[in-house]
Design a protein that fits this description.
single chain; about 300 residues; four-stranded antiparallel β-sheet; about 15% strand
Length: about 300
């Protein structure tokens, strides 16, 4: 089975080493905030966590094990498209253990960039996606809670200087990023180093190509301007030779005409280097203006 780029990123995140119990707690909070639901019936209450990525279900089970919490039960379901989803039923005492409520966010996650990254990792795997950067740049998190997405937006700006946008969907809200470097930074924060490196290579390659294109466009435009300018100069020179005569020109203008006729394609800056002593571009330009004015006077006198 071929995974999408988003699934590959999630697969990498599900393999990130958990370095402490605090990190495990922060990541499971991300899962619960992303896809957790508190369920209370007449006979029982529990937290239902549903994930649509099998490695994510294994990740959640490992995190629960690290936290000393056992699941109530686990079920595998398929939707109409035959895509597998896993429902994990978790005892409600997890909320007390994590000091978590629907509205609150543990203080440690708000203040520690490492724990915030672990939280974001769980949140993304549960309810996020990222587009293959070879096609375009798009990273998003989806949640029923607009407040939660504003929290993510605030912290990413504070910790990384990354600014996203939040939009309303039909039933949920979406936080998204559209810049390659921003997505790369967020992936690195969550621990997807391989995916971040892949995006960095693509963004760098695109920058190099863009720089080359800009340079070629500049050279092409510059060559076009030089060609048009040289053609105008040659036209003036031919008229001057016809109406005035090369032998009747002052020495400085005669030398200019001779060098331009010998080197029709050179820009003024390089033409100036052929004089003895060398002339600057502006000095050569001024001599051409003198030649042009001479021609205008001759034409004006009716000669």
């Amino acid at each position: 089975m071929k995974y999408t780029f988003s699934e590959e990123v999630k697969g990498e995140l599900c393999q990130v080493e958990v370095l402490s119990q605090d990190e495990a707690q922060a990541e499971i909070v991300g899962y619960l905030k992303g896809k957790g639901t508190y369920v209370k019936t007449s006979v029982d209450s529990y937290v239902l966590l549903e994930v649509g990525f099998i490695p994510a279900a294994r990740r959640v089970m490992n995190l629960l094990h690290l936290l000393g919490i056992d699941k109530k039960k686990l079920t595998l379901i398929k939707n109409k498209l035959q895509r597998k989803r896993v429902q994990i039923f978790i005892p409600t005492d997890i909320l007390e253990k994590l000091q978590l409520s629907i509205l609150s966010m543990p203080k440690e996650i708000q203040e520690d960039i490492g724990l915030f990254g672990a939280f974001l990792r769980g949140f993304f795997v549960a309810s996020g996606s990222v587009t293959d950067p070879a096609k375009n740049y798009h990273f998003e998190l989806v949640s029923y809670s607009e407040q939660l997405l504003y929290f993510v937006d605030e912290k990413l700006e504070e910790f990384l200087g990354v600014i996203g946008k939040i939009t309303k969907l039909r039933y949920n809200y979406r936080y998204y990023l559209k810049r390659g470097y921003d997505i790369q930074e967020v992936l690195e924060l969550m621990g997807a180093i391989r995916a971040a490196s892949h995006i960095e290579k693509i963004t760098t390659s695109r920058e190099i190509r863009a720089d080359i294109n800009r340079t070629l466009n500049f050279l092409s435009a510059n060559a076009k301007r030089t060609g048009e300018s040289n053609a105008k100069q040659l036209k003036i020179i031919n008229e001057v030779i016809e109406k005035v005569g090369l032998e009747n020109l002052p020495d400085e203008l005669r030398k200019l005409v001779e060098l331009r006729l010998e080197h029709e394609d050179l820009p003024l800056s390089e033409l100036g280097e052929l004089f003895e002593p060398p002339l600057t571009k502006s000095m050569v330009y001024n001599r051409f203006k003198k030649l042009e004015k001479l021609l205008e006077r001759v034409k004006g006198s009716g000669e």
